[in-house]
Amino acid sequence: MALKEDFEEHAEKAKTLPENTSNENKLILYGLYKQATVGNVNTSRPGMFNMKDRAKWDAWKSVEGKSQEVAMNDYITKVKQLKEEAAGSA
């Protein structure tokens, strides 16, 4: 399976992660997804009163410089890990 197809399949799987998935893990996925689909951060950091968007921006910024292929692979690995953890705790 091509990397892009595998990535898109796991992006769909990520939508079915349990409600109790930690915000930290959600932010890791968000940052990797944005890096894989958009590339490096291309917006300015949101203001300090916009905590949610600021955290998302920081997560994206933390993976800046990764190639889109590496970000896709890391995203797929993280989704698999979270799905396994969820299955193990069910």
UniProtKB/TrEMBL annotation:
Query: Does the keyword Nucleotide-binding belong to this entry?
Result: no
**Region Disordered, annotated ranges:** 1-20
Does the record carry Ribosomal protein as a key word? no
* GO MF, one annotated term: fatty-acyl-CoA binding
> The organism sits in which domain of life?
Eukaryota
Q: Which residues form the ACB domain?
A: 3-88
Q: Which controlled-vocabulary keywords does the entry list?
A: Lipid-binding
Regions of biased composition (Basic and acidic residues) lie at 1-16
Q: Which GO terms describe its biological process?
A: fatty acid metabolic process
Q: Which PROSITE patterns match?
A: ACB_1 (PS00880), ACB_2 (PS51228)
Concerning its family, UniProt says:
Belongs to the ACBP family.
Q: What is this protein called?
A: ACB domain-containing protein
Whose protein is this, by species? Acer negundo
